Amino acid sequence: MTADFGHDPEAAIAASAKRFSNWNRWGADDARGTVNFLDAAKRSAAADLIRRGDSFSLSLPFDEHGPQFGWKRRVNPVHTMTSTGMDTAEQMGLPHGLSVADDAVFMPLQCATQWDGLGHCFDHGIAWNGRLARETVTSEGDLVTGIEHVAAPVLGRGVLLDVGRALGDDGELPDGCPITSADLAETIRRQGPTSAVGRGDILLVRTGQLGRARRGVLAGDGWGAYAGGPAPGLSFETLGWLHGTEIAAVATDTWGVEVRPNEWPEAMQPLHQVALPHVGLLLGEMWDLDELAADCARDGVYEFFLAAQPLPFTGAVGSPVNPVAVK
């Protein structure tokens, strides 16, 4: 599980950005990136993958017990009741004994299971499709590629590559383990033909790290360094594979998709720096894949219908999501 792509991150990022760019592939006004690969025909075909009707939520709970600890102002959701069962109809000014409960939530949009939108990362001040970042995302939000533009189309064929189970010890990869293109190909070989990855697919990569972190929580040790610390993840080298397969999106069970520490000293998410503004690839983080993975291992079927639409927060650069896989 090693890759050699040079010692200079600036040069590697620049070369990969040029080689794997999808700029203008869908026109100068595009706001969807690789989600364009997931068209109506792909969605219709994916519906045929529902055979048993069993469904799996791939989301973490959205509550105060999540993995965030305040880094970059990311905190866990704060749920507040604005009216409760203790409030009477008379207090609410409602007729014939009717009373209601309401609530509100404060949370960063990327604090738990979520999508990174195309406006989340830039490369030297350049956003998706070659736009200037300062003109694309302002204090008013993402004016061009807001997450609302992909609120409808992100449902189709999902494919799970359980790299942790295929190549790890006891179903998990160790922190700091890079997943290479060869590792993805070997996982596909071991899992069989239902794991083939192609145009328009939503790829899910399980490392096993979330399950390991969850055991720490249950043991009373908290989440540890799950949010932003060392983690298994995709190698920078996989950019060519991700681009070449023409997938619509990729999501993992880790905080940041790519291996951490990153593969260069002092680097910070170099795969993001190419994948979002140049490839236009939607990235999903902190997805709970364990229950689905166990089912796939039992029946040997690693493809399924997946509904994973972001919430249409206008101008947002990311969104919480409750992905649901149906087999």
From TrEMBL:
<dbReference type="Pfam" id="PF04199">
    <property type="entry name" value="Cyclase"/>
</dbReference>
<dbReference type="GO" id="GO:0019441">
    <property type="term" value="P:L-tryptophan catabolic process to kynurenine"/>
</dbReference>
<protein>
    <submittedName>
        <fullName>Cyclase</fullName>
    </submittedName>
</protein>
<dbReference type="GO" id="GO:0004061">
    <property type="term" value="F:arylformamidase activity"/>
</dbReference>
<dbReference type="InterPro" id="IPR037175">
    <property type="entry name" value="KFase_sf"/>
</dbReference>
<dbReference type="InterPro" id="IPR007325">
    <property type="entry name" value="KFase/CYL"/>
</dbReference>
